[in-house]
Design brief:
This protein has one domain: Gcn5-related N-acetyltransferase (GNAT) (Aminopeptidase, 3-Layer(aba) Sandwich), CATH 3.40.630. Helices cover 30% and strands 27% of the residues. The protein contains 5 helices and 7 strands; from the N terminus they run E-H-H-H-E-E-E-H-E-H-E-E. It has a 4-stranded antiparallel β-sheet, sandwiched between helices. Strand 6 and strand 7 form a beta hairpin. The protein is globular, with a radius of gyration of 16 Å.
Length: 169
């Protein structure tokens, strides 16, 4: 049975977080780098926050007793369905942190009136695919970059009807 950790705080990045964000990326294993941070790309994106934050992007970190243990980024938050990246620290994998991060970001997107969330994952990342399915994401096929495409849609408060997923295929 998986152990659930407590005392997790999820919040937006702050200007003083650069060192902890770098430490988070430094602790990633080879497998995680292959799944999430190829060529240190997500660290490079995260560092843009400290240099003036990319427009229409929000960055969140999860911390446990002052240590960064998770990462969420929503790109294109000015669109109906933003793009999500998510990562969990190596030492806390299997302790339900990914599920807590997903609950947080889904609620955030709903409160902001978004229509859903889009993400991709490598075909080999079975653990992540299982999490996305448990969170209500549907597998939509293969993205042009070769990764699996997953979509979660929900009714926006301003709409009378939800998004018909069949119309998006």
């Amino acid at each position: 049975m998986e152990e659930c950790i407590s005392d997790i705080v999820i919040r937006e990045f702050r200007r003083g977080d650069r060192e902890r964000v770098n430490a988070f990326f430094d602790q990633m294993s080879g497998e995680t780098r292959a799944f999430f941070n190829v060529d240190d790309e997500n660290r490079k994106v995260a560092m843009k926050f400290f240099d003036g934050s990319p427009e229409h992007t929000v960055f969140f970190l999860a911390e446990h007793h002052g240590t960064m243990v998770g990462y969420l980024t929503l790109f294109h938050v000015d669109t109906l369905i933003p793009w999500l990246t998510i990562a969990v620290s190596e030492e806390l994998k299997g302790k339900k942190l990914g599920g807590r991060l997903m609950e947080f970001i889904i609620e955030y997107a709903r409160q902001k009136g978004m229509g859903g969330i889009l993400l991709t994952t490598l075909s080999a990342n079975i653990r992540a695919q299982s999490l996305y399915k448990r969170c209500g994401f549907d597998y939509m096929g293969t993205h042009m970059n070769g990764e699996q495409l997953h979509l979660l849609t929900f009714k926006r408060p301003s709409e009378n009807a939800g998004i018909n997923k069949e119309d998006l295929r």
